[in-house]
Amino acid sequence: MTGCCYRVSTLRRLSTTSALVRSAGTRSRRAAQAIIPMISRRAESPRPAATRPGATGAMPTGMVGWRGKHWGRVGGAGTYSRQLWSPPRASGATLAEEGVSSAVNRQEEENEGSTILFTVEGMRCGGCSAAVQKVLVATPGVSRAAVNLVTETAAVELAAGASESTIAEFTKAVGDKGFTMSPRPVGRAAEEAAIKAEARRAEEMERTKWDLYKAWGLTGLCLVTHTTHHLHHFGLHEYAHGELLTALGQPWVGGAIAVLALAGPGAGIMREGFKALANGAPNMNSLVGVGASAAFALSIAGALAPPVIGDYGVPVNNDFFEEPVLLLAFILLGRALESRARARAASDLRSLSTLLPLDARLVVADKLPEVGDDSNPMTVSVDRLALRPGDLVRVLPGEIMPVDGEVVSGAAAVDDFASFVAAGIDTFDTGPEACGYGPSELVIGEALKRETLRRDDVKIFTKLCCVGREQGNMTKDWVTQKLDLPMRRLGVKSLDLVQMYWNDYGQKGYVDAALFLTDAKAAGKIGAVGLTNFDTERMAQMVDAGAEISSNQIQFSLLDRRPRLKMIGYCEKTGISLLPYGVVAGGLLSDNFLGVDGSDVALDTSSKRKYASVVGYAGGYKWFQTLLETLRSVGDKHGGQSVANVASRWVLDSNDVTPAIILGARNAAHVDDHRRMFTFELDAEDKAKIEAVLARGKAPSADCYAWERGGPW
User: Fold this and answer.
1) Would the pTM count as exceeding 0.90?
2) Burial class (CB in 10 A: 0-12, 13-18, 19+), 687
3) Cα 389 from Cα 707, distance rounded (Å)
4) How many CB atoms lie within 10 A of CB 363?
């Protein structure tokens, strides 16, 4: 039986503590993702590795490799296998399915109170979230409550004996304050709700952007009305009293501009502010509304009063209609920046939440599959929330564990290497837990120990992941310790390539880290220094400082052509190689999605969900189908090559600094098809047809991995 099995253990009630523990655990539990073939542009006669002065030990070529992911250990015996596990299930987790009543009834049976999650819409600032929390805590039957503004989530812990009326009471109380509170959905409903929330935030950001443009346009008109004063200041008195400037300086003009600002871009702020004030929960909008209204009212009073004779004998009006306009303009600017930051934060959190799969493979069998058993017991795809204690769940290589549990059967990870080596795969890409790879280094080490892999016949690439406090205090000792750890795990005396990932560009220690890696290379501890997901600017900083960079592993495909903007040109000048991943967009660039309606596409993996977003940026689903049709026609021209092979070949042939590409696969099933990639080449006609489709899409505007760090696409 391919894959591993876990037994679902006793279901656990969700509390604040257990929820945090579960999140930390499930994020790092991933089955081994079988292979990521790193395929060279010429399998028969690999091109010499690109080099530059001082960059000895550059990238090897002709490589096919494997990227490992998380793996489990069976009973501490040192055998790695795919796993069976137990789902921690929240008492309120089925709230959306069973309704408030049944959820509360179940909670009443427990000795302690339970925590229920709600979605709260309409919160604008910290004052809003504080008001919601105050209402919740003040409700009898609520032990405590917490509200998160960014995720629009409220967690309510009910006291023992709380009833359905308690939930109805605080839901109504929150609604009376002007907010909408509803049970937080789970499973597919949660996924759909997250997509709708993201669309709502995008729509709100677009509306705020246009309000901002209008407000600053009116602000510009206000500044024009004050031009007369500036001209007088510079002694240009004759220009200060032209017909146009005189007319613009009239109080009624300033009043009209203020009315347009209050009734146009400021209408939403004024309406929400006074509504919150009327509900007894004033917020920032209330403060702005009161201030803008007061300024407008006093300006009307000042405009009706007799003017004051100012400098140069010019009558000066007592109004200040520009005040509410400028106030609204700056508030809208702050709101636009805040909305953008909140959207990015919410998007990052949603990306983490989508790591868990929605479905699980339930094994229906009388007995557990034994190690080496090639039988295939019947499996049924079920919602992961439907799992119960004692269930067996099957996980294939590359799949994420949907719930926790206990390993009971399976030992395929190490054995898979034999198939990879037989297919010509001689390079394996791995990494530490900090980069999401789990104990994959241990898996490769076990394969080396069993001699499934022979050290002299393979290349092993790993990563130095800098994602924590070390970014602000990078030291050589820290780098040395991080290099010693994979060497021990792999059981090797040196590392062929170490690729550095850096999370926070605000911390400049990446230059020092690259130099420390260069020192380790000079000492023979590593063979070459590489990077992962760095942009051109930071890579140039490291090279200029003297770091010997051999490669940069980046996302590059027909959908994501960001490397063509800056990265490729810089690498051609410096001799740095690129190792593209995502070349088939998590499997989207394949025959499986050709002609499939967008509503029928199952985004059942985190990779598919990520690259589905990329499709939206690249040109949309209709354009994507046109691209697949073009790739299919090119493949047919070359003897029925697959869409994935044509897409992969395009990346290989697109420049002279890509000695290999990284193709992800859960097992060796697609290796034979990948090898067919070297039986054809794209000619000028093929490339022209593909480029014509790309030209009809949306070209990227930012460098590599800027979007993933919160920047533009």
Assistant:
1) no
2) middle
3) 41
4) 23
